Amino acid sequence: MKTYRYQVTFKGKVSPQDEMGTEMGIEAAGLVGLGCDPLFGEPGSSAQMGALVTNDEDGAFSLQGEIVFPTGTLSFESGAAPPLRDLADPSLQGGEVKASITSGTGDLTGAQGAILFNFTVDDAARFIDQQAGLVFME
What is the pTM of this model? Predict the structure, then answer.
């Protein structure tokens, strides 16, 4: 099995997907970072992420979604993540999530591994995520 790594800073928006606020959508875009494996595209090439956030009554949440690279896609899902936390800047909240890669397409077919999300959301629902992926493939 071979190991591949990527890093992307995604920037986008969070928006409600239902009237109760239990589901939120994330749409974000970023650029493949320097030092990423060419399997994900050339440095500076565009990547897109779409995710559905499901909130529970205690403030915890889970994610499921897809990242589209120039070479293929990675689908992911997380278990329950802790609630967002307040940060030193009162207009921001932050969180960390570890998600499992559930499948891939294109050059990423058969992908397994994990994605680490380290993100902030501001008062205007702007989302910024410094994301790192560890991908295993045959």
Answer: 0.94
